[in-house]
Amino acid sequence: MAGLATHIHYDHVLWHPDLGNGPRWATPGTVHQSIESRTQVLAPLLGDLPDDLIAIAARLTPLAGPELEWRGPKAIVHEHNAHVEHHLALEVPDWGLLVAGDMLSDVELPYPDPDDAGLDAYRAGLDSLREVVLRTEIVVAGHGTTGYDVRERWDADRRYLDDVLTRGESDDPRIGLEDQAELHRSTCALAAQSTPHRGPAAATMGS
Ligand SMILES: [Zn+2]
User: What is the mean pLDDT of residues 189-203?
Assistant: First the structure.
């Protein structure tokens, strides 16, 4: 058994002894974060998890390259800096599958890093996945449901970013879901820190 941590956030680096001692791969940058900032990363778990589970959380193995070294089908790592630095998405072309981490969710708005003033890193990361999404059939999101609507999700996320950057508001229906109004407010505040050098983006999936 092996694991994959798409990014450094505490809810994506958990493990259990019953899963064995297989590698839990992550990008080298995420592994670095897990060592340098271990206390900070795991702080939200203190008091909620027994010490033995905290002790084995965030024990990650760096990926050796852009493809997973496993006995399964070809699996391509797409690293970007949306949501948090060194985030990865994993593509399994033979299955038409994209494991998106904390992106392309049907129940969460785009969730930028608190340092991503102007949302440049999020936009760049989302745009870096555009070609991947075009050849993807099914998306597994870290929160929400697995879906065949990956192109629609990509379009919705891109539209949301463009709306908050150009209008400072959005009519994305996800704003009404649990915890999303507060995220929307903080994202609008980040968007307001952008420099006015861009107009509305035209990129869509055309679907
Ligand atoms: Zn996350």
Answer: 72
Distance 122 CA to ligand 1 centre (A): 13
Nearest CA-CA partner of 17 in 62, 48, 50, 42 = 50
Is the pLDDT confidence value at 167 over 60? Answer: yes
The per-residue pLDDT for 200 is 52
Q: What is residue 195's predicted lDDT score, i.e. its pLDDT?
A: 74
0.90 exceeded by the pTM? yes
The percent of residues in the chain predicted with pLDDT above 70, rounded, is: 95
Every domain of the chain and the residues it spans? 1-64, 67-207
**Residues within 5 Å of ion ligand 1 by Cβ?**
9, 102
**CA 63 to centroid of ligand 1, rounded, Å:** 19
Superfamily of domain 67-207: Ribonuclease Z/Hydroxyacylglutathione hydrolase-like (3.60.15.10)
Tell me, in angstroms, the distance from the centre of ligand 1 to residue 192's CA.
22
CA 11 / ligand 1 centre spacing (Å): 7
Sheet holding 3-4, edge to edge: 3-4, 24-26, 61-62
Q: Is 75 helix (H, G, I), strand (E, B) or coil?
A: coil
CA dist., res. 186 & res. 1, Å (int): 38
